[in-house]
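Tutorial handout. Part one gives the primary structure; part two gives the three-dimensional structure as tokens.
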Amino acid sequence: MSGVLGVVEGWRAARRFPETYPGECPAYDYLLWNDSVRPLPEGEGLGGLDAHLKGLGLPGVAERVPVLAYGANRNPATLHVKMGDYRYRAPFGRDVCLPVLRATLADAEVVACGLHGQGYLYGELLLDSPHADGVVLEARVCLADADQLRVLNDSEGIREGHYRLVRVPGVRVEAAGVEISAVAYAADAHVWVSPVHESPLGFDTVPALGRRVPSLNATEGLDHVITVLGLREDVCRWTGLDDTGSLAAELAKYLNGQWWYARHTGREPIAGYGRVLGAVREGMAGRTLRSRTFDSLAERGLVIGDAYAPEPLGGVLLP
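Part two.
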């Protein structure tokens, strides 16, 4: 368990740097250890990780819940921010210790669903769609203990109904060489369809083989949305920003700043914040995919009734 990939802040969380959404992540299996990112040793399977966790008095691999991370939760800085903001309580007052493993998922894609108040187009897992057929998505699996799952659920708005917890079968965990059914977050919203591309928009920082949709970075995607919705002039009038080539980047910072202002002070953001969010969300809602991932998984009986108490892994990942 020795070795450090670096301090976690170096990975830049989208919650503080909206232009990076959904954010990059290590190319290797890693352990979020307090404010550092440590590579997990290769060639040992997960037995070494299990022994290490138990030696620290922490829940072992079989006691944890596998959470599919397809967007911002792939990023170690995002996980670190969430553990702090949602007051993670480690077992027995121990350190933050969250293993994150490489995984793949076939016939899946991550696409823009709507505008988050923090200043980026947030991603949704797209399954059972022709836009995802034949695509092999690179994802991560977070092995969450009970309170880490609570943190992730709260951060995704489970209590407010923004997302629902579902089971996604066919998630291949590379370190174990097996496919598991991981829990994941499915949005209670419809995926946006660009009238220019006649398809959803993907994220170029989330690798995928055989991608069928156009992929953009966070700034390009936001710029595309406000342009095709004809909102550039309104956005500038409401926010006081200039209509230059950097409008989308400045808008992301503007929204992000107001979101954090409201969170830290308990006060309402300035009027322009709400006007921009309302106009963009209304415009995006006018052109979406008819079906949702949540609906297709619900038809298969894969919605989890109690999001805060799903079954742990058991012995699935261990020899």
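Part three, for discussion. The chain has a mean pLDDT of 93. The radius of gyration is 19 Å.
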